[in-house]
Specification:
Strand 6 (about 60) and strand 7 form a beta hairpin. The radius of gyration is 13 Å and the shape is globular. The protein is an all-beta fold. It has strands at about 5-10, 15-20, 25-30, 40, 55, 60, 70, 75-80, 85-90, 90-95, 95-100. The strands form three sheets. The protein has a four-stranded antiparallel beta sheet, with no helix packed on it. A four-stranded antiparallel beta sheet has the order 5-6-7-8, with no helix packed on it. It has one domain: Rieske [2Fe-2S] iron-sulphur domain (Rieske Iron-sulfur Protein).
């Protein structure tokens, strides 16, 4: 695994979406209520629209372009079903959150 700095832990709070850039890759960090922080590729699987301006209500993320809805705990498509966001492994290292962009989580 190749761990890269994603953001400081202090930027994260439960129920929030935090956009980040790792090199040239846009990432969204979702911390769903009752869950743990998760990192996803910030591109909707529908047409590749950036999800950094999506609407996150602490449980689901809605794509700002076409209204596709994703589960914040899993990245699974809820509307429509049968799709999912690409998830990246993350870890805490001291006071920073790190991501492995090469290790998509299945």
């Amino acid at each position: 695994m190749t761990w890269q700095t994603l953001c400081k832990k202090t930027l994260l709070s439960p129920g929030e979406l935090v956009p980040a850039m790792v090199g040239k890759t846009e990432v969204v960090i979702l911390w769903p209520e009752g869950g743990r922080p998760r990192a996803f590729k910030a591109r909707c699987p529908h047409e590749g629209v950036s999800l950094t301006q999506g609407i996150f209500n602490g449980s689901t993320l809605i794509c700002p372009a076409h209204g596709w809805v994703f589960d914040g705990h899993t990245g699974e498509g809820l509307s429509p079903t049968g799709c999912e966001m690409t998830e990246y492994p993350i870890q805490v290292n001291g006071d920073v959150l790190e991501v492995d962009l090469e290790g998509d989580v299945d």
